[in-house]
Amino acid sequence: MNAVKPQGTALVTGASSGIGAIYAERLATRGFDLLLVARDKERLETTASHLRNAHGIQVEVLKADLTDKDEVLKLEQRLRSDSSISLLVNNAGVAADGLLANADMDKLERLIQLNVTTVTRLASAAAASFAKAGRGTIINIASVVALFPERFNATYSASKAYVLSLTQSLHAELDGTGVKIQAVLPGVTRTEIWERSGIDASGIPAEMVMEAGEMVDAALAGLDQGELITIPSLPDAGEWQAFVAARHVMAPNLSRSAAASRYK
Question: Any transmembrane segments, and where (predicted)?
Fold first, then answer.
């Protein structure tokens, strides 16, 4: 039997293509064993075979539809019980197009299940397991639309705002446990998510579209630098810091015993 790598095992959801597949490649390069999760088992097996041969690591493939609660519960239990897992990349997600008033609500419900409920359940399981071990890393893939919801579909933007908020809150809860957490907020990234969601991305200016490999490399650099929130395309980190500072300025006045004078 092969020995478990000192880094442990990285669990990557949505690992059959795009951002998830690149995270798998980059983490393999860093010496992690891998547990790759997605619906497309054939593509997962192809990826796994390549990574085993290229990096001499153990790679397990798990076919799962993470919009199916029963399958999510199985993966959640694996996270809670498998002490070799030391890193979670909460990447699986789907986008949506169109107005909320005209939306197919069944599709949006599946979006919420995948982007919100599944992310929460897996983050909870990882937080419990990692905190018990006193080590581990949770990476949640959000989006810049969390900061600019007027520019995109309402439900998708809201789901990614949730992921951002979840990460910030969980960071506070995990303080002192030895567990690291990061939210990654990509801009437009060249992946299959657009086609799968029925969105024509051909009209997006080329200067706004980042290659997925560049995005993941920047995200991992941010993780190495200890960032809680990583925005790969943002040139000046001070802009994000100012955004956070403005929130803290408001904080003392967000809950008071009397309404503001302008409402009287």
Answer: none
